[in-house]
């Protein structure tokens, strides 16, 4: 009975923490969105420097991506709900960017896994292959340590919390728009059924001209 009570208590504690942090993050991003609208894609915040492992086991990070307008998306491949459809949305954005030219040179997509235990390079290769990625401009990245990516997501302003019992993650499903200098300029709700792919593509192309 005591073990059951402890498990129940841990479950309630985890839910409370998730709710509190989610509300805090929603408030933060609401403020950021208002600020971004007022400034018409003005700078929201400086994004952190990072260096992570790509599908070939090579280190890729801020230095290699400098000079490119980027969409940054934190995800995990075994996500039971929002990550696969959002990654599909990114594939449609990729297709539009390829048509406009400069994908890989002027623009890029960066998908960062926060579940390095399951998301090995082999797993990420299999997952990414479902979305016809153009790897010269779409980077799938991972770290060796879970804490590294969880801390990185937090520095980007995103909430990611791991359920200690189920091993799943509660996370904000935002696609972040980062300019050539590494400044966050806007973000989009990947779960929005009315997400405007054309607008996102145009936002990126506009930033390439700055």
Largest sheet: 6 strands, mixed
Strand order of the largest sheet: 1-10-9-4-5-6
Low-confidence stretches: 1-10, 34-39
Number of strands: 10
User: Level of helix content?
Assistant: 40-55%
Broad structural category: alpha+beta
Overall geometry comes to globular
Strand content: 15-25%
Description:
The protein is of the alpha+beta class and 210 residues long. Helices cover 43% and strands 21% of the residues. The strands form three sheets. The chain has a six-stranded mixed beta sheet with strand order 1-10-9-4-5-6. It has a two-stranded antiparallel sheet with strand order 2-3. A hairpin with a 4-residue loop joins strand 9 (174-178) and strand 10 (183-189). Helix 3 (83-100) crosses helix 6. The protein is globular and about 45 Å long. 34% of the residues are buried.
Features:
210 residues, alpha+beta, 6-stranded mixed sheet, two-stranded antiparallel sheet
SSE topology:
Elements: H1 2-39, E1 45-46, E2 51-53, E3 59-61, H2 62-65, E4 69-75, H3 83-100, E5 107-113, H4 121-128, E6 138-141, H5 146-155, E7 160-162, E8 169-171, E9 174-178, E10 183-189, H6 197-208
Parallel strand pairs: 4-5, 5-6
Antiparallel strand pairs: 1-10, 2-3, 4-9, 7-8, 9-10
Helix pairs in contact: 3-6
